[in-house]
## 1
Amino acid sequence: MSGLYLHIPFCSKRCNYCNFYFSVNKKLIPDYISALKKEINLTSEKYHSIEFDSVYFGGGTPSLLSESELSSILDTLYSNFKISPYSEISIESNPEDLDESKIKSYINKGINRLSLGIQSLNDNELIFLSRKHNRIQSLEVINLVKKYFNNYSLDIIYSLPGQTFENIKDTLDIFIQTEVPHISAYTLTFEENTLLHKNLKDKLISKNSTDIEADLFLKLSSYLNKTGYSHYEVSSFSKSGFESKHNSKYWTYTDYIGFGPSAHSFYKNKRWNNYSSLGKYIRLINENKSPIEKSISLNQEESKFEFLTLSLRHKGINFDVYEKLFNEDFKIIYDDVIKILKSNELAEVKSGFIKLTDKGYLLADEICSRYF
Ligand code: SF4
């Protein structure tokens, strides 16, 4: 089954490490929601024959939406698409936006998975990351989320300059004590056009070396594995049965349709993305024009590359699926690669799959570009 993605491109302020597309002009929310619903109404007909089993509100900050705004989007989705009653309906949220009544309202609307942008439970680290929330707020919100949600995820950003594994463990241990079923762990990156990148260039801060980053990644992965979390994608860890159904679609070459500025879609071997401009998006939709900026149909080689790289970042390449899709035997074509990856402890072959080890995940991008 396929997935639906809704991009909510608003934030209260810009975090210093973030290069996602969003606006801080919240006055545009009503116009945006009208345009988003119109985009859904105008395009849904193409997907009448398919069923969806995941809906994901990402951003930006979807938890900035009011109850009625969120309800109106969900109502539009339900009246335009065939959505399975067993769907995973997720929303990304920031701790400072949530209280008990908002969390209850999510449950009442059928949202059954919440992804919480905690990032750290150390106040100095949160200040470094320019986040609006603090440790106490986070702990209160985690307890509330746990009270109402069986399925939720906590995010951590690690490898801050000078951070040790003991610092990271302080945050992880509290995550683990709450028995959170899913953790997303991201290495801090210094993306262009962010304040952190500028500070790095101006030598106001320094970046951890690649060796330190690798050491922290391996320690974090091993620690979470030992405490009951399966490492099922480069940055994702879950208890059994709590993998993200929606995000897994990105990694398993499954169709998903995205709405809103900068949203990406993949359907019938075609990828496209909307313009990353809120003003342009709203204007185009209001003029009954398409908000799509770029669209490409993947040829056989491109499909193969995507399948291999996405599978390797996830739970590995399934030999049978590969053969069905590309009509060739992976084990024969890539015999040399399998041997190199295995002998360097970068991958293991088991139960009809080749899957990267933690050390392999660390080098996933390099492995993909070198061998595929
Ligand atoms: S990290 Fe999240 S909250 Fe911060 S600016 Fe980016 S999208 Fe907004």
Note: The domain at 300-371 is CATH 1.10.10.920 (Arc Repressor Mutant, subunit A).
## 2
Amino acid sequence: MTERERTQVRVGPVAEFRDGDRRIIDVGGTQVGVFRVDGRFVAYENQCAHQGGPVCEGQYYPRMEAVFDDTGRSLGERANYDVPHLVCPWHSWEYDIHTGEMVGLRGLKLRAFQTEQKDGDVYVIV
Ligand code: FES
């Protein structure tokens, strides 16, 4: 895409987003979910790779990891807050919110949009 073809769609003031906040906007008839995660913005089309569900309306959680001791005995689970998962509300497919990758099949990704901050506002680039 050349610089001339880029369109900035204003989402809103950066100051209105606390970490973990999201907003779903309409971009020319396409719903786009914009998230502030760990201080940066990511944006994905609000369409799950499974059956098109409104994935950006799902909750997100830390990745749950199994913990084992040296002998392989399970010690339970722990929450890894460095890797939040966005969970589709229809059938619970999970996506890494940092990358848009489906957790169970890394080659499958949500359609991502670039984001930009300028003069105190956040934009989606289409
Ligand atoms: S449509 Fe998202 S998990 Fe099925």
Note: The first strand starts at residue 8 and ends at 13.
